[in-house]
User: What shape does this take?
Amino acid sequence: MSSLFDVTRATLAKDLRLEWRSKDATNGMLFFALLVVVIFSFTFEPTAEEARRITGGLMWMAFLFASTMALNQSWSRELRNQVLDGFRASPAPANALFLGKTIGNFLFVCMLEAIVGPLFVVFFNLNVQGDAPLLVLVFLLGTWALIVNGTFFAAMSMRTRSRELMLPLLLFPISVPALLAMVGAITAIFTGESSPDLSLRFLAVYDIVFTTVSLLLFETVLHAE
Amino acid sequence: MSADTKLIARINYHVSFMVAVELQQVTKLFGRFAALRSVSAQFSSGRCYAIFGENGAGKSTLLRVIAGLAHPTSGKIIFSGPQETLRHRIGYVAHASMLYDEFSAMENLRYFGALYGIKDEQKFAAAIRTVGLDPKLERRAGDYSQGMRQRLSLARMLMHDPEILLLDEPFSNLDVTSARDISTLIGKLRDAGKTILVVTHQVGNVAGVADHSLLFSQGQLLRCESGIAAAGQGSPGTSSGEGVAQ
Assistant: This one.
């Protein structure tokens, strides 16, 4: 019998291998995020203090828009050649597909953040005043919040005619609370004026709630006609 | 031959042709369009059924409904055997290849094997060999010819040794040799006791292997007949009783 763990691992390995070969999602995301960094750095000329206040928002905007490319791509490759039907006809648990894809997208976006995040620091001449190691936790929790919802809504919108438009329409409104918490936490760490604890706790709860809801509903979404 | 032997032979005959799938008044609507209208039929194990009909007649929808990829709007589909392993017992080949173009044959089968809990590389290699391909071929499926892709689709389906095989247009875009090879393979699978439903427009390719033919039109099962000639050409004939339009 196919177990949740085995199929999740196989799906993750398959997605990583497919992306390694095609580079469809990562190239698009990287190019888009780099453009945003460069354009923002030319458009604004903030002082060091202003930069610490606005960069959190700019970063997450860039990552949110860039990640929608990966999210759309991860499902559109399942529609080519009706490969998704191969999964749907199999006895594999639906949540394994969701978890495999979510973890894959999470890794792609983390990779993007690891490349583009330092560029933000350089271009905006950022000087972190707060507890810098906490940034890692903010990025992990924030990225999971974006990706778990994004993967779920991308699955929901994949069979619609204008899925590129549908995904942001579904994803962005529901991501606003998480986005506010991410920006709040980043700004608190950059400026060192307040504690990011509350925002981090909110993100942790948000992640747990939306991961649970997505897992409960995904089978219905996958088998919907 | 003794009476006992005769009885055993008779029982074996009935067991080998017992009903594997039964459709009871199955209707499938897409909005207001009826893809299937009150279709009732029985499909026995060890038999091959060729399904004909014009485009949009409901042939592919029938296979998708049996494969569990589409839910009937009304009616029932009854499968013999344990229901919890149902998805293990069904193999489905769609008109599209259902393969990742970026993967080689073995890589594709490794992934789909994981979905069925199969990890044995020998099984993958054997399935690939069964359809006349080389498991060592490193080429990506996207670079395969149409015939090779069709064969690999069959290997993907055969890998988990299903009892009910649903083949949607397995001969489309194939050259004569490839079509003949696939036809021969279908015959062997039927002889091995599989229940096979083949949707096709090419009567000649299933002439030697199909035991029954079903003719669909506008979502309705018009006829089910022994052999294929009459239904394939759309002429009236007599019902065999195994799949009867209701």
